Amino acid sequence: QVQLVESGGGLVHPGGSLRLSCAASGSRFSIATMGWYHQAPGKQRELVARITRGGNTNYADSVKGRFTISRDNAKNTVYLQIDSLKPEDTAVYYCNAFIIFTDYWGQGTQVTVSS
User: Fold this and answer.
1) pLDDT in tens, 32-74
2) Is the separation of the CB atoms in 80 and 36 below 8 Å?
3) For the chain, what is the HEC assignment?
4) How many CB atoms lie within 10 A of CB 9?
């Protein structure tokens, strides 16, 4: 079993930055593909960024150049650095761990971009 706890969300002005963190419990973090998803009101949950256990990354087109995913296996933590925030980035951001064909989800952290 893996438990994920996100933190770092909040209210930020357009153009601002946030750093989201996701702390994972359990001993399987290092083999997990980790991802960040977001879900805006009335919309489906969408992949924002993903990082494999080997450090390969991929991003949604809408966030390329503004979002950076990284991981620290020693701390069982994955990060999402979000720069140049836009109002359309407003959503609940969820951490995901994919381990041996099983998805695990955190509870989500709200990011609101507003002036």
Assistant:
1) 899 999 999 999 999 999 999 999 999 999 999 999 999 999 9
2) yes
3) CCCEEEECCEEECCCCCEEEEEEECCCCHHHCEEEEEEECCCCCCEEEEEECCCCCEEECHHHCCCEEEEEEHHHCEEEEEECCCCHHHCEEEEEEEEECCEEEECCCEEEEECC
4) 18
